[in-house]
């Protein structure tokens, strides 16, 4: 899961995020620790996680949890959706979202901006920008919400 997470960031955020973050030799190790906690620590039992395999290889991950935003009017938040670039357009991302977030569930997510491919994908799933943005680690993100 950590490998997919890091590789997806490197494929998607190169040019949006600082290279020293993406190329940090400890990046995979830190993500392994994050995923280990997320999957085993009882305090995170309210998270839903899904993985997608293709020919025996892990190619995508997704995770939702209760909202972390103070102004949340939605019931779930999509915190993780990463699919290796060679599987973009294959239906993998949609399958992962549907596994952790039923279509009738109100939800929100943060997406890098600019990231027109991801924003268009989320729009197809009913998410719309709500006008809220932030800058995290030098990357501008917009919030998209589905009622």
From TrEMBL:
Taxonomic superkingdom: Bacteria
InterPro entries: Acyl_CoA_acyltransferase, GNAT_dom
Domain N-acetyltransferase: 1-147
CDD domains: NAT_SF
Name of the protein in its database record: GNAT family N-acetyltransferase
One Pfam family per UniProt: Acetyltransf_1
GO molecular function annotation: acyltransferase activity, transferring groups other than amino-acyl groups
């Amino acid at each position: 899961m950590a490998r997919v997470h890091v590789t997806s960031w490197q494929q998607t955020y190169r040019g949006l995020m600082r290279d020293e973050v993406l190329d940090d030799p400890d990046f995979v190790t830190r993500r392994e620790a994050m995923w280990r906690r997320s999957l085993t620590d009882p305090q995170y039992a309210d998270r839903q996680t899904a993985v997608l395999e293709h020919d025996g290889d892990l190619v995508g991950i997704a995770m939702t949890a209760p909202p972390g935003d103070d102004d949340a009017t939605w019931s779930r938040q999509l915190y993780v959706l990463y699919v290796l670039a060679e599987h973009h357009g294959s239906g993998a991302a949609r399958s992962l979202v549907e596994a952790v977030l039923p279509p009738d569930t109100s939800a929100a997510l943060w997406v890098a901006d600019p990231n027109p491919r991801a924003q268009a994908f989320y729009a197809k799933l009913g998410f719309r920008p709500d006008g809220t943005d932030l800058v995290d680690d030098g990357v501008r993100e917009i919030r998209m919400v589905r009622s």
